[in-house]
Amino acid sequence: MxxxxxxxxxxxxxxxxxxxxxxLPAFPWFVYQTIGGAVSTGxxxxxxxxxxxxxxxxxxxxxxxxGTLRTFTPExxxxxxxxxxxxxxxxxxxxxxxxxLIKEQPVQRFxxxxxxxxxxxxxxxxxxxxxxxxxMPSWLNETEFFWITQDSExxxxxxxxxxxxxxxxxxxxxxxxxxxxxxxMYNTSWQLLQDPVxxxxxxxxxxxxxxxxxxxxxxLAQDYTGALLNTFINAPLPQLIISTYSNNxxxxxxxxxxxxxxxxxxxxxxxxxxxxxxxxxxxxxxQKLHDQQLTVKNRRLFQTSAATARQRVMQxxxxxGDASHSATENATGGYFEHDHGGITNASNGDPYAGxxxxxxxxxxxxxxxxxxxxxxxxxxxxxxxxxxxISISRAGVLSIASxxxxxAHESYLYQxxxxxxxxxTVRYDQYEVAVPVSTxxxxxxxxxxxxxxxxxxxxxxxxxxxxxGFRTAPLIRVLGQEDGLLAYTGDVPRIFVNVEDYIFxxxxxxxxxxxxxxxxHLRSSPACGNTGLEGAGGRLHWGKAGWPDAxxxxxxxxxxxxxxxxxxxxxxxxxxxxxxxxxxxRWTWEGVDLxxxxxxxxxxxxxxxxxxxxxxHERNVSSCPPSPYYTNR
Length: 633
Ligand SMILES: Cc1cc2nc3c(=O)[nH]c(=O)nc-3n(C[C@H](O)[C@H](O)[C@H](O)COP(=O)(O)OP(=O)(O)OC[C@H]3O[C@@H](n4cnc5c(N)ncnc54)[C@H](O)[C@@H]3O)c2cc1C
What we know:
Protein name: FAD-binding PCMH-type domain-containing protein
Number of helices: 26
Structural class: alpha+beta
Oligomer: single chain
GO molecular function: FAD binding; oxidoreductase activity, acting on the CH-OH group of donors, oxygen as acceptor
Number of strands: 16
Organism: Chlamydomonas eustigma
Domain FAD-binding PCMH-type: 1-104
Bound molecules: flavin-adenine dinucleotide
Low-confidence stretches: 180-220, 231-356
């Protein structure tokens, strides 16, 4: 598979008029999803103004079920364009997408720590504003929150663009942007990496000893977070588990996780030692990690030109023997390719002869295979690893979201290279629920009361034990109203809660009950929405987990205002259901007379006599499992 990192490609794309490249105005975290998949599922970042990727589309070209190629735009097909924006693969195969791009610009990022009650107050204030005048507070636009469950803390990341209308704010953003000579991303990062490594180590924000400055350390801290993950979390622990269990497998059956937790205690203690407040010790141990992992060296190789990279590799070869080979291998696995088919050709026995320049590599893409998943990793499920892993997750947030004013495509949060392998290879599921802003304060109040039971700010041990369903910090983002028929925010703006389950797969398919209780609240509490199987709860992300058992997700109840409009589009574009997927129970309009009730340009004629969007379902609430309506997790 050949992939192009779209954001870096655009960031590197320079014209005479715009020497700073381009960017998408708002985007999701990209972890090798395809652009077709991300658009088809309404994937999003956090933006009230620009919305999801689907909302930013100017045009879509698809191969239709009848084999023809057709381009949709809002101008040529006002109704069908609303259908194809979020089509979940049901209407055709996307071959071309047209987006609005904007010029690169500085975006000021600001990170602050909130107690749960302060976070709740913000949510309640925003809810109140929306219900009184249907507007959202400007501080919420582009803001993301990370919920540090074990600490009852919310990390709030706000972004301010260099093109905001207020001249004072604009000036502040631009003044804080330390513009390098050439503002493509690579040079910006290269400059950052020139900082002497040791001067930066004290600023690595780990656990409670974290501090937020000085600015601009985000990229560097990522290397250490990555090293920490690879050294303490990913490398020795699985080996320990494997040697502990005689069957030579890291897969644990139910109940074994507790036993494993005991085995892991000394290592957790060691981890705490490295997170201690003694700056000297921390510096020493992290320097050791750095030496082992060579991550900074690799980043330097990634982020300079091919010629310089090659020179550095040669230099490293003569400087430090074996270590340089690992640097070379990593470099070739990153942006420089020399021995994978199709991109470059190595020649004359010189292994570095075919290295591409950064621009070429970004433009042509990289060869990439889907990495195999690891075996189950028992320590993810071990109860006493919860706190350590959330601390790692918190450190990761602090490193990617530190106060800074980089260019837009670097400032909005993305998954750093140092952490990608972990995300791709560890077994977990991502779930996301979209809650209307009109009740978001009530929804979070119910959630925090349920999870913590009692004082939501100072947790005792019993309360902490209750949040052990999480191994990473839940992520909270917002989207403004959109007009896609199956867009999450077709009715009102929504706030999105993304939660990840690391326990199910890593504990021998043991149900993560604390996690499931959170999903149940989000999916069926009247405070979290007024759509769904029981007329309450928030909407599920099309591209994530949490789908109810077959027959227990009813489109007409989840999307009561647009489900039959989408049915009309399906009838016109794919009348024989050629694009049926593995969940046919979802895509049903049984009992609705689409043939008589659809108009090619208006959709479902709900005013017409005999046309109501009441779909017949084989199962109903009484025959489905209780909220969150699935039994397989
Ligand atoms: C680590 C990680 C981080 C993520 N971060 C975010 C995030 O920040 N925000 C967010 O909203 N989501 C996020 N997601 C969810 C992700 O964007 C969606 O799951 C996306 O659909 C995955 O893309 P894919 O290419 O793997 O699609 P697939 O899983 O292959 O496909 C998803 C759907 O799109 C359809 N589809 C795919 N390609 C086409 C095409 N060319 N034409 C028509 N239909 C097509 C498929 O039929 C299917 O129904 C994340 C996912 C992961 C794993």
